[in-house]
């Protein structure tokens, strides 16, 4: 009898232990684990769609050299831009040879030869270019970042020269093997014969259209993600966050470690996670992939974007994505920070995330054809700029203005600064 009591008592203790273990491991209601990894987040609301890396990597413009000092420029979304870029992406580039930039007269080459320049802005890691182009792996070349790709042919020579310009100093890489012929280059160049003619500036830094440039102006119906949606997206447990109102009218939500600053007047948030543990090494290509994955999980992409810049900032790396509409970048302005999505990473971990809460409804409200000045009208504007303004390029862009729930996108000329950032020409 005593043995049965002991057995029953032991069974009871085992059962109690199992029940206690259950409550220690799982929360009620539901079965979510109390222990969560430092990189996992709760399931988020359905917000913006996810995006593939390949759709965020493309040249900001394409210069077509027609020979005899004639040029034209295509921008994303234009039919001939897409035709040329898709054909180049289908070709194979192999056997890279390192050369010095100073060995060539590039201005003379632009004026005398037929070719295509693909401009990627402040720099694109080769490991990311390999996702969109048929670039054969090469240990010497793969660690570089490229700001420009140039394909050209010299009259009378069967070989096509394919150059990749490094962002690091006086270095260019030539693909000794490329499945392109001089005839292929001639066919690509022919797409630019009847488009707006451009002239190289006196200092050979940028191109000026000799005719007014046709650009569509837009009006879009806007909506915005809520603060609650962003909280649920970015915090492990939004229920334990508290908010603090700042003197400038912005609000900060924090769980004691992470913070979410909301500027309601700008419809913009800035999320920081300074306690994020380092999980890897600094690597430009890998950091960009991590940033894209982070946005996919936390808010998504509220429109079309392009990877516009990667920049080392002290012990972190800043990754910027530029908003695009109808193939043109949307500027950030003092009154409306809408055009850029910015992330900072330390050793492969996102520590800062800044973006707009605004997103456009799928149907455009209004669209009309406009024109940006070219030729002498544009030169006159440029001649009046202060001497301390350095122009690395000219870029048609959209200046945003929000009225109620309507976003007006007005075409403007933007100046490309030496660091790759864009500034409205009329504001200089």
TrEMBL record:
<dbReference type="InterPro" id="IPR009996">
    <property type="entry name" value="YycH"/>
</dbReference>
<protein>
    <submittedName>
        <fullName>YycH protein</fullName>
    </submittedName>
</protein>
<dbReference type="Pfam" id="PF07435">
    <property type="entry name" value="YycH"/>
</dbReference>
<dbReference type="InterPro" id="IPR042274">
    <property type="entry name" value="YycH/YycI_2"/>
</dbReference>
<feature type="domain" description="Regulatory protein YycH">
    <location>
        <begin position="3"/>
        <end position="415"/>
    </location>
</feature>
């Amino acid at each position: 009898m005593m043995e049965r009591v002991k057995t029953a008592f032991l069974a009871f203790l085992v059962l109690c232990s199992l029940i206690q273990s259950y409550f220690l491991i799982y929360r009620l209601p539901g079965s979510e684990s109390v222990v969560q990894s430092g990189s996992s987040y709760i399931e988020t609301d359905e917000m913006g769609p996810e995006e593939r890396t390949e759709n965020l990597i493309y040249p900001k413009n394409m210069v077509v050299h027609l020979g005899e000092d004639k040029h034209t420029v295509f921008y994303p979304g234009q039919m001939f831009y897409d035709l040329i870029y898709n054909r180049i992406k289908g070709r194979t580039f192999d056997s890279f040879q390192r050369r010095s930039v100073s060995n060539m007269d590039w201005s003379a080459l632009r004026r005398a030869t037929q070719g295509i320049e693909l401009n990627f802005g402040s720099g694109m890691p080769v490991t990311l270019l390999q996702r969109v182009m048929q670039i054969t792996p090469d240990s010497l070349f793969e660690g570089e970042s490229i700001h420009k790709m140039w394909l050209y042919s010299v009259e009378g020579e069967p070989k096509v020269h394919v150059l990749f310009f490094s962002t690091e100093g006086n270095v260019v890489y030539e693909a000794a093997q490329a499945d392109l012929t001089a005839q292929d280059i001639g066919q690509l160049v022919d797409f630019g014969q009847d488009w707006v003619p451009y002239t190289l500036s006196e200092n050979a830094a940028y191109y000026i259209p000799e005719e007014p440039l046709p650009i569509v102006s837009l009006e879009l119906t806007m909506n915005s993600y809520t603060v609650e949606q962003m909280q649920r997206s970015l915090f492990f447990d939004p229920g334990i966050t508290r908010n603090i109102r700042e003197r400038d009218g912005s609000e900060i939500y924090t769980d004691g470690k992470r913070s979410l600053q909301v500027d309601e007047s700008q419809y913009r948030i800035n999320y920081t996670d300074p306690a994020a543990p380092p999980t890897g090494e600094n690597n430009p290509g890998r950091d960009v992939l991590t940033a894209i994955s982070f946005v996919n999980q936390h808010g998504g992409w509220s429109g079309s974007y392009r990877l516009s810049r990667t920049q080392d900032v002290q012990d972190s790396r800043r990754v910027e994505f530029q908003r695009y509409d109808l193939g043109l970048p949307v500027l950030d302005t003092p009154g409306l920070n809408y055009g850029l999505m910015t992330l900072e990473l330390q050793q492969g971990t996102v520590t800062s995330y800044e973006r707009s809460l605004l997103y456009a409804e799928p149907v455009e409200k209004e669209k009309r054809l406009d024109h940006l000045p070219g030729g002498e009208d544009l030169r006159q504007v440029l001649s009046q700029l202060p001497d301390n303004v350095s122009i690395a390029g000219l870029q048609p862009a959209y200046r945003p203005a929000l009225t109620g729930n309507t976003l007006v996108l007005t075409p403007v000329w933007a100046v490309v600064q030496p660091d790759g950032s864009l500034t409205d020409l009329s504001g200089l």
